[in-house]
Amino acid sequence: MEKAILTLLSAAFTLSAFATYTVDEDNTTATNTYVLVHGAWQAPYVWDAVRADLVNKGNKVVIVQLPGHGDDNTPPLNLTLDVYSNKVIEAVSEVNGKVILVGHSMGGMVVTTVAEKIPTRIHKLVYIAAFLPASGQALTDLAYSDPDSQLGPALVPSADKLTLDVLNNKVTDLFVSDGSPADKKRVIENYRAEPAIPFTNKVTLTDNHFGTVSKVYIKTLHDVVISPGFQDRMIARAGIKAVYQLDTSHSPFLAKPHEVSALLLEIAK
């Protein structure tokens, strides 16, 4: 991974960006509110089945579309980790009470930043096969520390170094090798290049903000993007005691969405 990313710009840009988020407005007596944040090279569609399960159980669900993903066309030059986290905070501000904030993969960096900024709004912070940084780390720092990841050799930076692509013949093998043909087709159809600058943005975390938030980690045992061993090391370093596991690849909400939903319902108790 290092060869593909070392050449990326390390400067951060703080221009504003726009994104969308979807709220289940008709559920005014929801038991819990879940805010779901997707990862890199993905978009809100990955949460569709999980959202349906959670809503059917009487919960409210907010799915955030990060800027530069899905149908949002914010230029990659304008994107930073703070831009992402501020969009999630905007979504949280639209609902009442505390939320269960869930981040997948790169989304782990985003929800970590959100937890530092608005810790009192978060009931539980849930990482699903997600990057879990310590203060002072960027996603690239974590990625370099995972020698068992198979993502690095499949990365192709754009000529301007502002985006990263995954080799087309590796996308489904990396992200949803255990998914159905329909799952894999959907991933390919919704694929787009990933903004690169947020990968280089470091987080600053404090004990009296991020440190006060209750955290849960859901491991993926057949993950080749963030290896299970590296997930274990991040969990141990962060001191997380509430740990669950799924017998899936990197995108369990596609391959086994009902198992993900069941865990999220259990975590809320």
From TrEMBL:
Domain annotation AB hydrolase-1: ranges: 35-262
Organism of derivation: Dawidia soli
Annotated TM spans: none
Protein known as: Alpha/beta fold hydrolase
Domain of life: Bacteria
Record GO terms (molecular function): hydrolase activity
UniProt entry keywords in alphabetical sequence: Hydrolase, Signal
A Pfam family it matches: Abhydrolase_6
Leader sequence residues: 1-19
InterPro entries: AB_hydrolase_1 (IPR000073), AB_hydrolase_fold (IPR029058), Sec-Metab_Biosynth_Hydrolase (IPR052897)
